[in-house]
Each structure stands twice: as C-alpha cells, then as structure tokens.
Design goal:
2 strands; Four Helix Bundle (Hemerythrin (Met), subunit A); mainly alpha; single chain
Length: 284
C-alpha cells in the first residue's frame, strides 16, 4: 500500500487530473543483433582465438619471407598456418566454444594465410615474367578464394555436410606450396622455369574453388568405428613413404585431392545416366 501511495503523486496532479508520464524513446534493436552484442560484451573464447591468431601470424610471416626471397620458408609458414587452422576448429569443438565470432575470424585468417600469402608467393616465384597475365592470375586466385569462403560460411549455416562444394581454399594453397617444395626437392635453384603450365594451374585452382564440384570432407568422419584391416596396412605404407620422400608424398596427396572433385563429378554423372538407361529399359 505504501508503494502504491508513493506513486500517486507522480500519476495525479493537484487538481485531480491525470498527468501522463513521458516515456524514454530508445532505438529498437532486433533480437538477433541484441544477442550478438551481449555475447561480445562477455568476451571471446580464448583458446580457439589464439590458434586463429597464430594462423594469421603465419600468413604474415609467409608474405615477409616471400619478399625476402625465402620461398621455401614462405611455403613452410603456410603449412604451419594450415595446421593451426585445423587445430583451432578441433579445439573449439572439443571445448564446446564454437561461436559466430570465431567463424568470421577464421574466415579472415584464411583469406590472409591461404589466399593472399600463396598468391604473393606464386607471383614472386614464377608469375612476374608473365606481366599483366601474372598479377591477374594471382589476383583472380585471391578473389575466388574469398568467394569460396563466403559461400562456405553461408552453406555451413544449413547444417553439417558430408562434402565440400568447390575446392577448399586450404587445399588450393597447399597445392601451390607442394609445387614449390617439390621443385626444390628435384634440384631446382633460383627462379623456376617460366612455363605456361604453372600459369594455367593458378587459374585452374581459382576456378575449382568457385566451382560446384564435390570434395570429400573429413570433419564428419567417425574415427571410432572399425575399419578393414587393409586400411591399417595402407596407412603404415603411406606413413613410411611420407617419412622417406615427404615432398613427393605431399605433392601427390594434394594433387589427387584436387583432381578428386572433377573425377567424382564425372563418376556421379555416369551413374545417373546408367540409372536413367535402366529405367528406360524397364518401362514397357
């Protein structure tokens, strides 16, 4: 009762008429933006963000190494960035600290480490003699890589997928890196031979990233289930080859993965045509 009586002087004037209180007008914020703002005020998840920051630093050091002419060192920094890129996602899922902030930060890191850094590396390493065609190829690679990441972020909101659409940008970067390492492993010294093949490879990687070819994804693979015995033997054999000739195995692995998308697409088209032919043959 005392609380109600305390409010009466604010609601009624002395002459008994009602006095309307002015409401403070605030700009309306959607619930979606309001939730995100509240989460950002609470801070960010430390462990995944540190790995992502390390990813960006490796990309930056790779660019500096390229400017200094240390192409092998620049390639190694991109490999370290790829390792940190895989670790930060695993750490986020393990600690249950996934967030939209982490997804966006990871995409920005990938643009630097797997888009800009390998493009600058391949440009200074082999594409400068091509003039406008050289820098245009490197620029096309960066733009297509950014488009690939943007499309992946949009498609990832629809749920987990068993495959990627288009060549992932880390795999495209590792294809460039493996080419550099294999060249020096085979005895190359100084600037490589300026063949048109490498120029076409860069354009090819850019087109594969924005293509609709399906690529296998290992994120949803359950490693706890039982596998045939031949997979264990094959794994031992591949590990032995990786220790003996790491540059050759590195190049071969990413080359097969890069070609797996178009090959899987051709195999799928062939299966569909065979099924259509069987359906036509069954009809009376």
């Amino acid at each position: 009762m005392s609380a109600m009586n305390a409010q009466e002087p604010e609601q009624f004037s002395e002459n008994g008429k009602v006095r309307l209180l002015r409401r403070r007008v605030r700009p309306r914020v959607s619930l979606r933006n309001r939730v995100h703002a509240e989460k950002l005020r609470q801070g960010v998840y430390l462990i995944p963000s540190l790995f992502t920051a390390g990813n960006i630093m490796c990309g930056f050091f790779s660019i500096l190494s390229t400017f200094n002419g240390n192409y092998v060192q620049a390639a190694l920094f991109i490999i370290f960035a790829n390792i940190l890129d895989g670790v930060d996602g695993y750490a986020a899922r393990l600690t249950k600290s996934t967030s939209q902030f982490g997804v966006e930060l990871d995409s920005l890191a990938d643009v630097v480490s797997f888009g800009l850094a390998p493009a600058i590396l391949v440009y200074y390493w082999a594409l400068i003699p091509w003039g406008n065609w050289g820098w245009l190829a490197a620029c096309t690679y960066v733009v297509c890589g950014a488009l690939r990441l943007a499309r992946f972020n949009v498609q990832a909101r629809g749920g987990a997928k068993s495959h990627f659409v288009g060549l992932p940008i880390p795999a495209a970067a590792e294809m460039i890196v493996s080419t550099v390492l294999l060249y020096y492993y085979l005895g190359g010294d100084g600037a490589p031979n300026k063949h048109i093949t490498l120029l076409l490879v860069i354009y090819g990687l850019a087109l594969l990233m924005v293509s609709g070819f399906p690529y296998f994804s290992l994120k949803n693979t359950d490693l706890r289930k039982r596998f045939p015995i031949w997979t264990f033997v094959l794994g031992i054999f591949l590990i032995t080859l990786s220790v003996e000739v790491p540059q050759l195995m590195f190049f071969t692995s990413f080359l097969l993965y890069t070609l797996s998308g178009p090959l899987l697409w051709c195999f799928t088209i062939k299966r569909r045509r065979e099924k259509r032919g069987e359906m036509v043959g069954v009809q009376p």
